[in-house]
UniProtKB/TrEMBL annotation:
<dbReference type="InterPro" id="IPR044717">
    <property type="entry name" value="NIC1"/>
</dbReference>
<protein>
    <submittedName>
        <fullName>Nicotinamidase/pyrazinamidase</fullName>
    </submittedName>
</protein>
<dbReference type="InterPro" id="IPR000868">
    <property type="entry name" value="Isochorismatase-like_dom"/>
</dbReference>
<dbReference type="GO" id="GO:0019365">
    <property type="term" value="P:pyridine nucleotide salvage"/>
</dbReference>
<dbReference type="GO" id="GO:0008936">
    <property type="term" value="F:nicotinamidase activity"/>
</dbReference>
<dbReference type="InterPro" id="IPR036380">
    <property type="entry name" value="Isochorismatase-like_sf"/>
</dbReference>
<feature type="domain" description="Isochorismatase-like">
    <location>
        <begin position="39"/>
        <end position="205"/>
    </location>
</feature>
<dbReference type="Pfam" id="PF00857">
    <property type="entry name" value="Isochorismatase"/>
</dbReference>
Length: 223
């Protein structure tokens, strides 16, 4: 069935307003309500390739750095585990069929941004796809850290790596009949603008789809 552009735009307008309204009054996630030894902060792709250099760099991702770095410091001060994913590909990556060449192994694009790297004290996992959940290193980490019940996910991009990781993680816990908090603070995730990829729209819709999948959305994280 062919897409009817005018009809779709008209019919979706009210839905977009409703979704935006639902994202306006989100609660604040309070760290003092979570046990540090059962909580992990997962930082996704806060690397130079998306924040500072290369064909996929975005000012929206760059603007996330202060909020994410602040949260990393806060979590480390509370003894909360920090895990950091970094996109890292070889020249043979099939991902380059869909995206420009980025985050090549051995280049500065793969590096965590300096503001977070300088804080340190995090577990680094390189990933060769948009979905870090699939990485063998993460699956091993998950097994070794069965005590973690609360996952706070920050970084980029909301509609790609964040959404895929968060919904995969939540679905896996559901499959195992395990109740776990998979949380995304809205002020610490974002995506990019590029051509038809409208950052505002894709960011909003990704948040909505995650919420529909059982991921808990929060306006921010506070001590």
């Amino acid at each position: 069935m062919p897409l009817q552009k005018d009809s779709i735009v008209k019919n979706c307008a009210d839905s977009l307003v409703n979704i935006l309204s639902s994202l306006e009054d989100l609660p604040i996630l309070k760290l003092d309500g979570l046990e540090p030894q059962k909580t992990a902060l997962v930082v996704v792709d806060m690397i130079n390739a998306f924040a500072r250099e290369g064909p996929l760099q975005s000012p929206r991702v760059n603007a996330l750095i202060p909020a994410v770095a602040k949260l990393v410091r806060l979590c480390r001060s509370r003894g909360i585990t920090v895990l950091s994913f970094a996109d890292c590909h070889t020249t043979e990556s099939p991902e380059y069929d869909a995206f420009p060449v980025h985050a090549l192994t051995g280049t500065s694009e793969c590096e965590i941004v300096d503001e977070i790297k300088e804080i340190g004290d995090y577990t680094l996992i390189h990933k060769n796809s948009t979905n870090g959940f699939l990485e063998e290193s993460f699956q091993e980490w998950l097994i070794d850290n069965r005590q973690i019940e609360n996952f706070i996910i920050v970084g980029d991009c909301t509609d790609i790596c964040i959404q895929q990781f968060a919904t995969s993680l939540k679905a896996d816990f559901n499959r195992k009949n395990q109740r776990r908090l998979v949380a995304v603070p809205v002020d610490a995730v974002d995506t990019y603008d590029l051509g038809p990829h409208n950052g505002d729209l894709t960011h909003m819709m990704a948040l909505y789809f995650m919420q529909e999948s059982g991921v808990k959305l929060y306006s921010s994280v506070e001590d």
